[in-house]
Amino acid sequence: MDQVVILKRPSINLRIGRQKMNILITGATGFIGRHLLQRLKQDHHTIKVLSRNGARASQMLGVPAFDWNYAIEEAPPEALENTQIIIHLMGENLGSGRWTGKRKREIYESRIISARKLVAAAPANLECFVCASAIGIYPGEGDEVYDESYVVPAQVNFMQTICRDWEMEAAKIESKGVRRVSIRTGVVLGDGGMLDKLLPIFKLGLGGPVGHGRQWLPWVHIDDLVSVYQTAVLDSRYQGPVNTVAPGPVRYREFATALGKALHRPAFFPTPAFILKLALGEAAALALNSYHIMPTKLIQEYQFKFKFADLPAALEDLFIER
Hints:
Blueprint: E1 5-7, E2 22-26, H1 31-42, E3 46-51, H2 54-61, E4 65-67, H3 77-80, E5 85-88, H4 101-120, E6 128-134, E7 145-146, H5 158-171, E8 179-185, E9 187-189, H6 194-203, E10 216-217, E11 219-221, H7 222-234, E12 240-244, E13 250-251, H8 252-262, H9 273-280, H10 285-288, E14 292-293, H11 296-301, H12 311-318, E15 319-321
Parallel strand pairs: 2-3, 2-5, 3-4, 5-6, 6-8, 7-14, 8-12, 9-11
Antiparallel strand pairs: 1-15, 10-13
């Protein structure tokens, strides 16, 4: 009889008491946002949310929520009143369909325009602006190792353009004397995100490497990602770009093998690059690019302790047998 594998929700471990803050979150109904909000609620922070559908968000999350259509509205002053921390996670899903011209504008504007409007509306008592970013700011080629010391050149690809402009808009808050942190995230492992798309394929025994499989895949366990956000809110050492990926990088074929092993399924069916390109066009770069990224600032400057530093341990935590 086949084993039934259940993806469990990551555990939340709270170890230290924290100062209570008034926090405003955008993108809180998303995969990362839901986990982060629950952690912050357990820290007893006062939390508000901005969402396109405030009523639905409030019902889903159990916190006050305000309507905000960033494309046609300024950030609502009543939501920002007395806010000490803004955590900006809002952004259209990169992996949903082909990158047509219209879709690329939606992806870009959802990040850049919303960040710009939040910075413009920042209240006088704001202490910290924590904004999502991504490892897409790096070239995505070959085996060269990159960290936060990388300088983005003038000529860049679409993903680099998004991330560079996203961080530049967030950084404008610094002119108001507000600390800014840009969390450059890799592939997040948890009960959502990329794993949701991969699980049906791998459970059928049809999983495997994408393309040649030698490309580097930067990953992070959802627990560790949430811990970085949680710490960045209050730790004044956190500033500027912060690579939030596990210190144990793997190639895509290693990832496929480890995931197949965790699911007790074979993982040797490759997905040729040309098929992805035919199906997704330019968006295929999300799977085919190679990002060899290290979390230098987290380890060397902030002494952050990863709970899941290697891939097998992360996958073992996420999957249990019944």
